[in-house]
Amino acid sequence: MKWEIMTESSSCDIFSHTDGKKLRDHLTSVAGYCESAYREAKPDFSTLGFSHEDLLSFSRLLGICHDFGKATPFFQEYLFADEKNRAKLKIKPETRHGLVSAIFAYYCIRNAIKNKSGSESSLLPFFGFVLVRRHHGDLINFFDETADIRNPEKIEVVKRQCASIHKDLLQALYDGLIPQQTISGFLQEIDATVSSIIHDGKLFHLKPQLDKIQEDTAMEIFTLYFYSLLLEGDKLDAARISVERNREGLRSDLVDTYRKNNGFAESGTPMNRLRNEIYEDVISKVGTLDLKEKIYSLNVPTGTGKTLTSVSFALKLRERIFHETGTTPQIVYCLPFMSIIDQNYEVISSVFSLSFPQEIPTDILLKHHHLADISYTASDDENYDEDASRLLIEGWHSEFIITTFVQFFHTILSNRNRAIKKYHALANSIIILDEVQSIPHHYWLLFHDLLQTLSRFLNIHVVFVTATQPLIFDEENPGEIKELASNKRNYFSRLDRVTLTFNRKPKLLLDFIKEIQDRIQTESGKDFLIVLNTINSAKEVYRELSSVLASDTDYVFLSTHIIPKERLTRIRALRDSTDKKRKVIVSTQLIEAGVDIDVDVVYRDMAPLDSINQISGRCNRNNRDDVRGEVQIVTLKTNKMELCKFIYPSFLLDKTRIVLEGKDNINEQQFLALNNQYFRLVKELHSEDPAQDCLDLIRYLKFSALHDTFHLIENDYPKIDVFVECDDTARMLWQKFVEIKSKPLPERRKDFLKIKREFLDHVISVPEKYAKCLFRDDLGIGHISQEELKIWYNPETGFTPNDGGTMII
């Protein structure tokens, strides 16, 4: 999207940035971005009582007013001072421009709405005050926003700032943008304006207006949308970046062509026939869907091509929406685990390479997570430096984004400036939530309400993709969710790849190891996958199994305590291996969903039913030669307690046992009914308190408290990050990191971006109690040098604590 500069630079020499950018140009450009993005996205906030015209004016005035305080001589002096004086001027209260700009925004928005509608009762002026006030920081609780302006000293500073601005320069700055009488009125009515803001911000005044709004999440969505517009417009213009979407870059038939080229469309085996039926069933829905239905489900068995089917559905839905509305949705593909991000990216990039055989530009396909490269390329061959690349990547300026659940959910439930600036990009998008069963059950109500309201206000279509559909939305409630695989019961009933055996009696870990050793030795033709709940138990099992050398067997260990670079190498080797050696894989839970491997026998330490189902999808995945795979569920224990209780709530384990009780051997055809029974029990009996706590905070815009309350990934114990100097490449990276840390902050950030991906590939997160002595206070991270590897890091099993204990993933 490109936006137009609304007016040319005036002759007044008031600047916004040190690179000589005129303040008027900056304000008009940001205003143009906010207004154009809002007009193009067409979000529907009419049920909140805001007219389209008022919101156009609101979005424009956010940009026009957001840096008003930079017009003061105090800020101008600071902007062009030498380095020594700049540090002194920066701490002067008169130099700061956020509060005075926010008060000015409040006054201008209130006057504009009053002049248009004759009403002063709208919440918009106060929202404008908050968004401008926080555009260089993070959102806080709305009802704390008036605390600082109750301080008379703060208001005296504001008055000095306003009095310092030369009136002729101010009139020239805003000529044609804001009526002169509005500017004059503001300068004369500062005290009255501050009193009005305090009045609007009082809990007893604002809360009743919010109580009138039916949806708990409505005003949070409104706030984050417009805050995001302002943040992104401001940052892009400050960096002098103008971007235009490449809407022509994605064809809707790319997956069709890819499947044909790779022989996937042929029905040579029963498994391929099933995959093709599912694909055709889902794709046939695109033309007949009621686009007012926004929440979809793709609930089909593991290994039946969900990735390609969901991508093709999204591309075709995108094309239909464009033809019917003129809007081209971005597609956001979200996955829960880092272990499968690269795998799915490889598949999707292979599809898109049909249109881009040389290199797929980032404005077409973007991979965004904390380990992703900071390098942005555009279809028009525009080059971007590290800072510009970071802005464009973090702003999701791409047609198809592959990202994590953490990135997505901590964008729509956040107070952080950096996360929220991409929020408005979600408008009109198609969101694919793959492996959606990974969403914690105690947040089901939260995501139900939030996604439902988001889909309506921002016209978002959401696709839930999984083999084990959680009851966030219930198919039995009309209108809640639309199943795309209309024959899914038939699809599940036709598969007979595995038999699942539930072993009720707990088993000592040492007895379990002996049993597995015996089977590996006597069943030499079978691949085994053993999934344990704790890292210590996984290490012990691996150590005992691999101690028996066998030329025909590869032993593979996986856990989060192996550096990411090596972990990914091992997963790829398992997936792509062509050698004849059989595999014995010992892993923690990181392998259970989405990782495309295929074994004959799975042993799984006791877990909730959805996890059991997911790990079953790694067994006889491709229905090889009519041989049935074997999944054994065991409850392992030490002398102290069952290991599953270190990881999972007893509530979920109890519900799993209820569902599996009395069923010694379970065929795959039974999985769908068992999963439905399990999720019904969970929904009926689980606590909704965590979700309701978040909804209460959202309803009254308590953003700081929400940040402290909502955690998609729970950390039950303190952890620290540790860099592992595992080879000479890692040693050089560490040396660069130490050098970078000694540089000034702006230079430090820029230089770290250049090595970030490689550096984080060597970082593991471990329990603090086991690694305190490794932590470097001066560098903010732990470090294992090459000389210390034998003590702290085993090349096969990863981090080695010196204090013993039971480590969990």
Task: Walk me through this protein's architecture.
This protein is an alpha/beta fold and 809 residues long. Helix content is 46%, strand content 11%. It contains 33 helices and 22 strands. The strands form five sheets. Strands 3-4-2-5-6-1-7 form a seven-stranded parallel beta sheet. Strand 3, helix 17 (386-394) and strand 4 form a beta-alpha-beta unit. Helix 26 crosses helix 27. It is globular and about 90 Å long. The protein starts with 22 loop residues before the first helix and ends in a 10-residue tail after the last strand. Mean pLDDT is 90; it is low at 1-11 and 804-809.
How would you describe this structure in keywords?
809 residues; globular; 46% helix; alpha/beta; disordered N terminus; 7-stranded parallel beta sheet; 33 helices; disordered C terminus; 7-stranded mixed beta sheet
